[in-house]
Specification:
The complex is a heterodimer of chains A (111) and B (112). Chain A has no helices and 11 strands. Chain A is mainly β and 111 residues long. The radius of gyration of chain A is 13 Å and the shape is globular. The N and C termini of chain A lie far apart (37 Å). The relative contact order of chain A is 0.35. In chain B, the strands form 2 sheets. In chain B, strands 2, 4, 5, 6, 9, 10 and 11 form a 7-stranded mixed sheet that branches. In chain B, a hairpin with a 3-residue loop joins strand 4 and strand 5. Classes of the chains: A mainly beta (111), B mainly beta (112). The interface between A and B is medium-sized, with 17 and 20 residues.
Chain lengths: 111, 112
């Protein structure tokens, strides 16, 4: 079993819908949680960065971390065709430099 | 907007040839990572540098891969000899210790 599990999708939604993405993990020592967006033939781009449990909002994006359930989520409100990309979750322990990545979920927002 | 720069963007080579990939980290960043991305394995860590010193290269096949940082503005990843199974996208990422990583746009390597 992988340390970080993420459903690869693909996920297809109409424009304006809420996109819900999630990852589960097994390592209770993870403290830092990230979401990266990767467009085709580009590198991953940092979207959200959170520490420990709680919610963080940035524009149309909301990241949630539930450490008790070892579950993190990313919500995209009022989705746009430009949100079509692969979304990768990543996480690490406090005193470690290594990131553990999910497999990535491919999202298509239909105009 | 500072970016991690990787060259070349694409490389096609024949099995057995040497491949060198270059990375210019964001100015001021003191950590550099090399990752490899494939459909099957996702993102895999190959090597990690802090203040130009290699701290972890356990993800690299030692017999054929090598990573160096000749100076703070250049990181290199070499494969010699290359094999078809090395075909992948290789990403360089840089950051400050404890901060999120910033990725380049990768080198897409095809070994025939």
């Amino acid at each position: 079993q992988k340390e970080v599990e993420q459903d690869p999708g693909p996920l297809s939604v109409p424009e304006g819908a809420i996109v819900s993405l999630n990852c589960t993990y097994s390592n209770s020592a993870f403290q830092y949680f990230m979401w990266y967006r990767q467009y085709s033939r580009k590198g991953p781009e940092l979207l959200m960065y959170t520490y420990s449990s709680g919610n963080k909002e940035d524009g149309r994006f909301t990241a949630q971390v539930d450490k008790s359930s070892k579950y993190i989520s990313l919500f995209i409100r009022d989705s746009q065709p430009s949100d079509s990309a692969t979304y990768l979750c990543a996480m690490r322990e406090s005193n470690d430099y290594k990131l553990s990545f999910g497999a990535g979920t491919t999202v298509t927002v239909r105009a | 907007d500072a970016r991690v720069t990787q060259t070349p963007r694409h490389k096609v080579t024949e099995m057995g040839q040497e491949v060198t990939m270059r990375c210019q980290p964001i100015l001021g960043h003191n950590t550099v990572f090399w990752y490899r991305q494939t459909m099957m394995q996702g993102l895999e860590l190959l090597a990690y540098f802090r203040n130009r010193a290699p701290l972890d290269d356990s993800g690299m096949p030692k017999d054929r891969f090598s990573a160096e940082m000749p100076d703070a503005t250049l990181a290199t990843l070499k494969i010699q000899p290359s094999e078809p199974r090395d075909s992948a996208v290789y990403f360089c990422a840089s950051g400050l210790v404890g901060s999120p990583l910033h990725f380049g746009n990768g080198t897409r390597l095809t070994v025939t």
